[in-house]
Specification:
The protein is an alpha/beta fold and about 260 residues long. Helices cover about 40% and strands about 20% of the residues. The strands form 2 sheets. An 8-stranded parallel beta barrel has the order 1-2-3-4-5-6-7-10, surrounded by 6 helices. Helix 4 packs parallel to helix 5. Keywords: Carbohydrate metabolism, Isomerase.
Length: about 260
């Protein structure tokens, strides 16, 4: 299933723009694009919401016919339990996270111990924890960790754009993570020369215009055959003013949704 995430609304939700979107506004824009899945990922206000506000947001999603996934950072059992409570409000069946949280950086051995402590809560709740591929943890280590634990409540959130920062090849990341992938973050990426031709900038690109071989990912992971959701994100640099940035962010979202709908 195609979904949008809060990273597809990064600037529209930001206080840097005039009249930033609310979470409900992002849900309404998602529905307007004919998309019925939304991942609330790394959205700081979520953890500050009262029970009443959480239930109000969950009702808004339900009224719009939108399924919710969640996202956080960290794997400490208390954090997992906190997000399982939020998942229960939204009837969310997947929580994306990363091994490293705001206040902790466990190594792989420590991470395995933390995850094994959290697993009973995940399994009882019927929620899958999707650990994202990113530059701070080698993909092979992450995949080995998930495989060693061997629980249906644990998998990989595949984002091959992230691992370039540790000089991993995106295709190799896709191939290594494919058997355990339970969620995909969809964005294109590219290098551009810095002014003066000294160095490069690595950032987002319009879907299909960058370096991401997404057809390879589709062939390798087979997300649509396996029921793995594809969540649209962007790495869109600030364009100099709010109006241009928001307009381009919306254009990139429409382009990515159209791209995903047009690919077999």
């Amino acid at each position: 299933m195609i979904g949008l995430g809060t990273y597809a609304f990064f600037w529209q939700l930001s206080p840097r723009v005039d009249d930033p979107l609310s979470l409900t506004g992002a849900l309404e824009q998602t529905r307007a694009l004919g998309v019925d899945l939304f991942q609330i990922c790394d959205y700081a206000p979520l953890e500050e919401m009262s029970e009443t506000r959480l239930r109000s947001a969950a009702r808004a999603a339900a009224d719009l016919g939108i399924t919710i996934e969640l996202g956080t950072k960290g794997i400490e059992p208390d954090r997992i339990r906190r997000f399982l409570r939020i998942a229960d409000v939204f009837d969310a069946r997947l929580v994306r996270s990363m091994l490293h949280g705001p206040d902790s950086r466990p190594d792989i051995t420590e991470s395995e111990a933390l995850l094994r402590r959290a697993l009973p809560d995940l399994e009882r709740a019927g929620v899958t924890l999707a650990l994202e591929t990113y530059e701070q943890v080698p993909t092979d280590d992450l995949v080995r960790l998930v495989g060693n634990i061997g629980s249906g409540a644990l998998g990989v959130c595949l984002d091959p754009a992230n691992v370039v920062a540790r000089l991993e090849q995106p295709r190799e990341c896709v191939e290594a993570a494919a058997p355990h992938t339970v969620n995909v973050h969809v964005k294109d990426f590219a290098f551009t020369r810095q002014d003066g031709w000294v160095g490069f900038a690595y950032s987002g690109a319009p879907m299909g215009a960058g370096l991401h071989d997404y057809p390879h990912l589709l062939r390798t992971v087979r997300p649509r055959e396996r029921g793995v959701n594809e969540i649209v994100e962007h790495w869109l640099p600030w364009q100099g003013d709010p109006e241009t940035t928001v307009r381009l962010e919306r254009e990139w979202t429409r382009r990515t949704v159209d791209y995903l709908r047009s690919t077999p």
